[in-house]
Structures are given as C-alpha cells and as structure tokens.
Design goal:
alpha+beta; two-stranded antiparallel ribbon; 15 helices; 9 strands; binds protoporphyrin IX containing FE
C-alpha cells in the first residue's frame, strides 16, 4: 500500500482494498489499512487517530535542530488544543484570500516562470514549472520576493528529504541529508520570521495569519512555523495535481479538445482529476488510545494507512467511479481530507493548478511528449508524475 502512490496504475489494487468496508489488518507489515470511503472517513474523523505517535511527536532522527523545531510546530502534525487554535487561524486566513486576486498573481507569474525556464515545450521544463509556480505564488502572498523562489524550493526539498525518514518504512537520513534539512528549515523559519516581524514586508497571507493567530492566542513562533508550513503543504501536492491533470488531458483527447475550445472547462477537469487520480494517495494515523475505529478494535500505538486514493474510487461515493468524467454531477471525494486535519486550501490549490495547466496548454507543448517519458516520484503517500 505504500508503493501504490508511485505505481503506474494502483487502481485495480485500490479497488480490491476498498472492497472491504472495514479497516483491513496487514499482519505482515503490522499496520491497518482503511480504504473504503466509509473507513477512510471514520479514521480521518476519529478523535483517537492522531497524526503522530503519542510518545514521539517529533521523530527522534530529527534531533534538536531546526527541522525538528519546524516539524513540531506544524498544524499538520499536532492534535488536540494546540492544533485547534492554529488550525482556526489558518482556515480563516486561507478562506479570507481573494481567489480572483490569487489567480491574477499566478497568471502573471506563470508567464515570468515560463520565460525564466527558457520556455516549456518538453517534459523536464514542464515539471520544473509545475514545482515552481504554486509555491512561488503562495510565497508571494506571504510576502516573499520572487527572487527568493529558487532558494525557497531548495530549502523545502532539503527539509522534505530529512523528514522523509520520519514516516515509517523510510531509510534513516544520512548526516549530510540531516544537516541540509536543518539548514533548510532554519532558512525557512528565518525568512517567515522576518516577514512576521515586519508588517510592511508581509503579504496578505502573512498579515492575516498574524492577526487571526494573535486573536486566537497562538504563539508567534507557531505562526512563523506555520507560514513556512503553508509553503511546504503547497509544494509537492499542487505540482502533482498539475502534472496529473496534464496526463489526464493527454490520455483523453476528447476532453483536451473541449478544454481547447472552452478553457473554462478546465475547472471541472481538475475537480475530476482530484477524484480520479488522487494526489494525496494516502496519509497516516497513529492510535492515541485503544478503541473501535472503522469497525475494528485497535490498540494504542497502532498505525493506520489511510488510502484516500482508494476511497475516491469507491462506488459508495460516486456512480461508475472508474470512469474519467469531468461532467460528473455531485462529485464527491476525500482528496482534501476530512475531520480536524482537512486541507484549508481546497479552494486555492485548484486555482493554482488551473493557471499552471492553462499556461502549459497555451505554450503549445505537445502533451504526447509528456506521456512518452513519465514516471512517478518515489513516495509512500503522494502521487507525483515526473515528466522528462
Ligand atoms: C492539490 C493540492 C493539495 C492537496 C491535494 C492537498 C491535500 C491535503 C490533505 C489530504 C490534507 C490532510 C492530510 C491529513 O489529514 O493527513 C491537507 C492538509 C493541509 N493542507 Fe493541503 N493540499 C493541497 C494544497 C495545499 C496548499 C496550496 C496549501 C496552503 C496554501 C495547503 C495547506 C494545508 C495545510 C496547512 C494542511 C494541514 C491541516 C491540518 O493538519 O489541520 N494544502 N492537504
């Protein structure tokens, strides 16, 4: 189940898993798998399923450095009271964003990034573009100058490589990877800290986060870390959605034709990609205490792999779930999670993806060039097509 996100077609396997309504015990690996729509929702909405094991809020491997400091403060990786106040501040902040303004900023930046890359036209450039644009736009909304875009991406990559070991089953990071991860986290914290300290420098996202957070009694250090967290959450997930949408268009020439005739159709294409070829293929939870979850008796410390990608193809959510149909009515998916940790950017992320895909189409990049050389990045959770 941890190899499924990087498999070319995990869906027959996911179908099999989602056939069990209750969570499945995987004795070989010693974890549970929730895959039906019902089971996934049960786990995500359960108060006893936490985002970290109780005794190890910050992975020991991250030690006392900046990567551990950042990790330990993120809303994504905290539960209970500390999570709730921060989450409320973040939800209000992101919900308060003017999406039309974000779209305009993204459009202008998309033209500039394409030019900086020397044009699109082939897979590697499209992949670089998909990774660069969303995080630069979210960075700009926080107040980060465009000129720091490359640095921010590098710091995020270094931090991500170090925390990769934090999830079970991944290899321990080497001293070098760890040192780079701490250095990247330090830079991100310093950059966000500077924007938080200087209201004139902060963008609308930072300004709102600081004022909403202060109103809810959040500590400044937590707000700074979570500003960096917004960059982290934007980075790989949105790039993955962009590339998965391009793949879907390449594989469905009829849909591509419709989008070329009427670019507004892209909105519903992206919604269908979110359901059909899920970016957050899975997430993970740990039991904070014994209890019944998704129909099974679980014990404190148990691990649950939450297969969102399988749930989104469950016939209980949508009729004819294996059909790619952008015209689907009343589409239902769990792609942005559910319960306490649901994604606050369910409105923003598709807008960023739409602008990026639109730009690639306008560049005239032939989509069959992308499908000729595509592989999925190695990840136990995120499904990221890499072109070129
Ligand atoms: C296509 C793009 C995206 C997808 C598919 C996505 C999906 C998700 C999912 C499934 C979760 C819940 C994870 C879990 O419960 O374990 C989540 C959490 C989160 N996402 Fe997103 N996300 C996307 C983009 C973004 C962007 C652009 C931002 C910020 C601007 C963002 C901010 C967050 C935050 C802060 C959380 C943590 C919420 C919490 O733990 O309470 N996401 N996202």
């Amino acid at each position: 189940v941890r190899e499924a996100p990087s498999h070319p077609d995990p869906y027959p396997y996911y179908d099999e898993l989602a056939g069990s309504r209750e969570a499945i015990r995987d004795e070989d690996n010693g974890w549970w798998v929730a895959a039906s729509a019902w089971a996934v929702r049960e786990v995500l909405e359960s108060e006893i399923c936490h985002t970290r094991p109780s005794g190890e809020r910050v992975p020991r491997a991250l030690g006392d450095g900046a990567a551990g400091e950042l990790y330990g403060r993120l809303v994504r990786l905290n539960d209970g009271e500390r999570h709730d106040a921060l989450k409320a501040a973040i939800v209000r902040t992101v919900a308060g964003l003017d999406l039309d303004e974000a779209r305009e900023i993204a459009r202008a930046r998309a033209v500039a990034v394409e030019a900086e890359l020397g044009g699109l036209g082939e897979g590697a450039a499209v992949t670089r573009f998909a990774f660069a644009l969303p995080v630069q736009v979210v960075g700009n909304l926080l107040g980060i100058p465009w000129s720091r875009g490359e640095d921010v991406s590098r710091w995020l990559r270094d931090y991500a490589a170090a925390v990769g070991a934090a999830t079970i089953g991944a290899a321990m990071p080497s001293e070098e990877v760890l040192a780079r991860g701490h250095a990247g986290a330090r830079e991100l914290l310093d950059l966000a800290g500077g924007l938080h300290a200087d209201p004139a420098a902060g963008g609308p996202l930072m300004e709102a986060l600081a004022s909403e957070g202060a109103g809810l009694g959040c500590a400044d250090e937590d707000l700074v870390a979570n500003a960096a967290g917004l960059l982290f959450q934007s980075y790989v997930a949105t790039a993955s959605l962009i590339n998965s949408t391009l793949l879907a268009l390449a594989r469905h020439p009829d849909v591509l034709g419709e989008v070329q005739r009427d670019p507004a159709r892209l909105t519903s294409v992206i919604q269908e990609v979110l359901r059909f070829d899920t970016t957050t293929s899975s997430t993970i939870r740990w039991l904070a205490q014994d209890g019944t979850v998704a129909g099974r008796e679980m014990k404190r410390g148990d691990v649950v792999i939450v297969a969102i990608g399988a749930a989104n193809r469950d016939g209980d959510l949508n009729a004819d779930p294996d059909r790619f149909d952008p015209n689907r009515r009343e589409r239902r998916y769990l792609e942005f999670g559910a319960g306490a940790h649901a994604c606050p950017a369910h409105g923003l992320a598709p807008v960023l993806a739409e602008v990026a895909v639109d730009q690639v189409l306008a560049s005239g990049t032939p989509l069959d060039v992308l499908t000729e050389r595509v592989r999925y990045a190695a990840s136990p959770h995120i499904r990221t097509p890499i072109f070129g």
